Structure formats: structure tokens, C-alpha cells
Amino acid sequence: MERESNSAFQDKQPTKRELLLEKELERQKKARKEAERILEEKYLEHYNLTQQLKETNAKLEGLLMEKTSELEGVFLNILDAYMVIDLYGNVIKMNNAAIDLFGVKGRSNINLLELVHEDYFQETKKSFKKLQTLGALPNLTFTIQTRNNEEKLLSVNASIIYDRYRNPIAAQGIVKDITKENQIKELLATQRRELDVIVNKSPIAIALTKGKTLVKINQAFEDLTGYGLHELKHLDSYRILSHKEDMPLLIHKMKQLQKGVVDSFSMIKRFMRRDGSWLWGRLTVSVVRNRKGEIEFEIVLAQDISDEIRSQRKIEEQQKQLKIIVENSPLGVVLLIDDAIIKANKTFQGMTGYAEKELIGNNITSFIGNWAKSSDDEIEEDKTEYVVEFTRKNGEEVIGRTVVSDVRSNEGFILYQVIIIEDITDEIALKEQERMLIGQLESSNQSLKEYAHVVSHDLKSPLRSISALATWMYEDYKDVLDDNGKYNLTMMQEKIESMDKLIGGILNYSSINKESLKKQKVNLNRLIKEIKGVIYIPAHVIVKVVKPLPKIYGDETRFRQLFQNIISNAVVHIEKDPGLVLIDYESTKTHWQFSIQDNGVGIAPEYHKKIFKIFESVGNKEQSTGIGLSIVKKIVEIYKGEIWLESKRHKGTTFYFTIRKLEQKPK
Fold it and tell me: For residue 617, what pLDDT is reported?
């Protein structure tokens, strides 16, 4: 059956479709075999790769552990503080530097925000949120208060740590303590501000230059020159601001700076100002060099010294004048240092007889050996007066009066001494002669006083006898004598009375002297009242004190003579009715000035001085001795005063006189 079947099948030819299916089946078989082959190759490749990855992973894990160990060591020993915190500020990890920085050694559960100073908490919290938003925040600064109660300013370079899904899980950062750095910056800023204030407010003109270019000038420099920085910045300021006559020296000194011979110099020069005027100034230039010795900057200081120059020139002129005065002075002038002569003028050379070269360098005591203070007190501070005796080179003896003055430094040290010496040899001789003459005069005056008393006594005795005889004759013969005889006897009595007054006046005049004056407080109002009660005042005359008179020190008897003689002289020569005598005074710094005014007959100008001389009188010579006003003048002069008068004929007379004040009763 089978053969029949095969035979039948063989005999039967396959169709076209069957052929196509067979071909398709064949292709699928081939494709399956190819796929299996490829799968086998890929599997083998995958297997090999897997094995390689396992080996690589093993290596990577080893390297990772090694690097992790290394990083852990770096993390723990890094110099800057490093820390990791969660998003709430809790510290996850920190290195040793961070532990020391925050002062939290031995503590756990640390929250960074708790360490922030309360004054900066809100600001720091905002910055922390900003970090979470941005992911990184460089140079974040905040202030903490450590557990040691120290305030520190910190700078942090912070960044966020993300998981594999880019979710923030922590923050990390390197922290630096910038407290001291910030303090230094603030100090530098303060010093810079202070320096700017000092420079800008300085009275000294200051400029900073680089080469020929001005970099900066202060207000004083603008005031000094009249130029602003913008006007001088690109100009040769040294040449513009300098007088042409000062340029050669300035250029020479600038070249020395540039060559490195000097680092600074000063000079006096004239500054030309913007308005064309100029002034004297002191210029100081200093340079700042780099390590190579090259000039980087020039510091220029300028100061107006015009007044100083004028004063110096004035002093120099005065010194020249003083030198002329000293050299030509009639007084000897010597300068000493430690008693050694350093200068002697021509007068001193003439006094001693030695030339200047013989005097210079030698001790003053070699020429003047005998010094004696003229008084125990110094004349003025640092001045002492001496009387010296020395011998000239030719052997003549000289007496001198010297004043020694100390010239001191500001610290009080004596720099040198000035001796001014006057030759008083002739003066001493004259004084000695004067002393002898005064002694002779005093002796003569005493003899005259004694003679005056004797003569007065001898004269008054016969006068009294003559007066008695005349009186007796009149009483005995008045019935016999005619009118002419009676008149002659009356005239004889008047002449005798005048003679008696003259003798009394001479005695009063001769007895007035300074030594005999008493010193007491005198009430002039009471004194005038007593005088009015003693002297004869005609009925038609009134004596009046204009205002209360002062109480003054002196001799009451002499003041009585003074006022009484003038008042008596006034009332005698008043013919007008009513007659008036006014007594007044004024006070000056040193004197009392009195006035006695009358409305009498007056005195002609030619007699204004004559009437004060002894035995001189004006008017009724029968009633005047000519001594009264002489006594007045002598008393006034004893009291260091003056007397004078103002008068016109028939217009009255005013006598003025002054008495020196004595503020307290003399001892």
C-alpha cells in the first residue's frame, strides 16, 4: 500500500502553490537557524560582557572603598571647616575644623540655625531658603555666637545635595571664619576715611603725582595754587607752578630723586598762582619706590611761608639795625656763653682798653673781677643789676653799672647772657661831690635857720621897744601933738607891725622842709571852716566851698598855711560887692587838684610867675610881706605838686595847685 501510495504520490506532480510554500518553509528554516546562531553569539557575548562587568564592578567597589577612605581622611583633616546639614539646619556631619570653629566638641544633635546670632537670625533664615531654591549660594555671610560666647563672622560656600530623582535631601558647605579679616577691612576702611579727612582738611597743601601726572590734590593745594585737579592733571605742574628763577635748582633736585641719590628733598621756592600772583612756599617732595627701585609715586607737600619769609626778613633787618645800635651804643654790650665772651661791642672795648680779639673766648671775670649786686631784688625776671669795679689795660680804675640778662630757650635753659655796662666813674665822682655839697648846704641851711632865729629874736626885741616908746609918746603927748604928729606916730606903729610880719614870714619860710612835715589824715572841710573863723573877711565877701572836700594825708599845719595864704590874698583884693571866693577840687589818678577862684581886681600877666618869688608882691605893698605865696609854692612842691594861676585885670583870679595822693598813711 505504501509503495502504491508513494508511487501514486510520485506520479502526482506538485502544484505551483505547493512549490511556493515549500520554498517559504525552507527560507524559514534557514532564518531560524540563522537566528539561533545569532542568539548563541549574542548570548555568548552577553555572558562574556557580564563576566567583564562583574570583574569591573569588583574593581570599582574596591576603588570606591579606597577613595571613600581617602575622602574620609580629607574630610576629617581639611583646614577649612566643612559640614553637611539637613534641610532643617541639623548637622549631619562636620569635620574637626568645624567642631573647633563652632565650639561644639563632644555635642550631638546640633542645629546650625540655633548658633546664629539673634540679630542676624531672620536674615540667615532667608538666605537658607534662597539656597534651597537656587541650589548653590557662594559667599553667604552670617554671624554666630559660639558656645564660648564668642561672636564670629562666617563666610560659607554652600550647595544642595540631591538624590537620584533630583530631590534636595541635604546641604553642604565650606565655612571660613572671616571675623579678623573683616575687622582688618573695617580698620583699613576707617583708617582710609581718617586719612582722607586728614589730607583734605590739612592746612598743608598735599599732592600725589605719578611721573608728570597729578593723581590727587587736597583742598589746601587748590587754595594755594588757585588750580583744580582737572586743570593740572595732564600738565607739567612743576614748571607751571614754579617761578622761572627757581627752576634750575628744582630740576637738579628732581634728577637726584630720579637717579635714586635721595628719596626726598625740601626747598624754598616761589609758587606761581593761577591769577598770576606768586607766593613764597616750602616744597617737600618724597618718593615711593617699588622693589626694583623705580619711582611709583611722588608725594608733594607745599606750605605758604610768605608771612614767615616777611617776618624773617623783618627780623634780619631788625638784627642789622640792632647790630648798628649795639656797635654804636654809648653803653658796653657783651654776649656770654658759660661766662666766656663771644661778642663785645666797641664801647666795651674802649672801656677795658682791650681789642675784640683779646676779649673773645676769655672768661668775663678775667676783665671784671669785682661784682656786687646793686640791690637784693632783680629788676625784672632773668635780669640782675650789679655795680662792678675793674682796671683798664692802661691801669686806670673804672666803676660800672651793669645789667645781666638771661636769654632762655622754650624749655627754660639759659642759651646765653647779655651784659650791658655803663661807665659811671665820673657819675660816682659827681655824686660824691654832690654829697659833699649837699652836706655843706645842709650845714649852711642849718646855720641860716639858727641865724634867722637869732636875727629874728634880736630884731623883734628892739621893735617891741620902739613900739612901746611910740605908744607911750602918743599917750603922753596926744594933747600936745598936732594931727601931723599923731599921723607920724600911727605910721610908725604900722611900719613896726609890717616889720614884725616880715620877720615872722621869714621864719615860716625858712622852717618849711620835707623832714619836718607831720603825716596825718587832714579833714579839709573842717580846716577851711577854722580858717574862715581866724582871718579877716570883709562883710561884702563870701567864701564858699563848691562841694565837700576830700580827706587827705599830710601835715595839717602846712595845709593850713597853704589854704589860708591864698584865701587871705583873695579876700584882701576884692573890691566888688558882693565879693565871692569859691573853693573846689578834682581828683586825678595821682594827684588832688584844688582851685580857689575870686572875683577881685585880678593880676596882670607879667606878674603871674613873679608873685611866687620871695619878697615880690602886687598891689598894696603896705599890707603884703611878699612871702605868703612863696610859702604856698614851697609847700606845694614838697608834696610833688605844681601851682599856677589864671587871671585878667578886673576879671578876677583863679589859683590852681596839686597835691600828690598818698593812699594810706605813710609809716
Answer: 52
pLDDT at position 382, please? 60
Assess contact for 502 and 621: CB atoms under 8 A. Answer: no
Strand pairing category for 295-304 and 205-210: antiparallel
Alpha-carbon distance 587 to 451, whole Å?
41
Q: Is residue 343 packed enough to be buried (19+ CB in 10 Å), middle (13-18) or exposed (0-12)? A: middle
pLDDT one-digit tens code per residue, 634-648: 888 888 899 999 988
Long-range contacts of 632-640 (CB under 8 A, 24+ apart): 632/561, 632/562, 632/565, 632/566, 632/657, 634/509, 634/512, 635/512, 635/558, 635/559, 635/561, 635/562, 636/562, 638/512, 638/513, 638/514, 638/517, 638/558, 639/554, 640/591
Tell me how far apart the terminal alpha carbons of the chain are, to the nearest angstrom: 197
Q: Measured between alpha carbons, how far is 424 from 588 in angstroms, rounded to an integer?
A: 37
For 211: left if phi > 0, alpha if psi spans -120 to 50, otherwise beta; the answer is left
Extract the C-alpha cell encoding 95. 569635620
Whether 53 has a pLDDT exceeding 70, the answer reads no
The cell numbers describing 664, all together, are 594810706
Residue entry with cell 576830700: 550
The three three-digit cell numbers of residue 14, written as one number: 506538485
**Cα(136)–Cα(157) distance, rounded to whole angstroms?**
8
Q: Which of 405, 401, 428 is nearest to 415 (CA)?
A: 405
Contacts of residue 123, defined as CB under 8 A and 6 or more positions apart, other chains included, come to 142
- Closest to 626 (Cα-Cα) out of 505, 537, 510: 505
Give the span between the Cα atoms of 459 and 457, in whole angstroms.
6
DSSP code of 305? -
Closest CA to 517 of 568, 548, 552: 552
What are the tens digits of pLDDT across the range 522-554?
999 999 998 888 788 888 999 999 999 999 988
Closest CA to 406 of 319, 338, 346, 342: 338
Segment 126-183, tens digit of pLDDT:
888 888 888 888 888 888 877 677 888 888 888 888 887 888 888 898 888 888 888 8
Q: What is the three-class DSSP state of 381? A: coil
Predicted TM-score (pTM) of this structure = 0.37
- Three-state DSSP at 424 gives coil
> Position 134: which residue type?
L
Question: Region 234-261: what's the mean pLDDT?
Answer: 85
Q: What is the CA radius of gyration of the chain?
A: 64
Question: CA nearest 367: which of 382, 378, 376, 356?
Answer: 356
Name the residue among 386, 385, 401, 392 with its Cα closest to residue 351.
Answer: 392
CA–CA dist 217, 229 (Å, integer): 6
Q: Residue 422, class by beta-carbon neighbours within 10 Å (0-12 exposed, 13-18 middle, 19+ buried)?
A: middle
Q: How far apart are CA 214 and CA 45, in angstroms?
A: 81
pLDDT > 50? residue 581: yes
Closest CA to 344 of 71, 357, 378: 357
Model pLDDT, residue 546: 94
Cell of 453: 632865729
Set of cell numbers at residue 541: 565877701
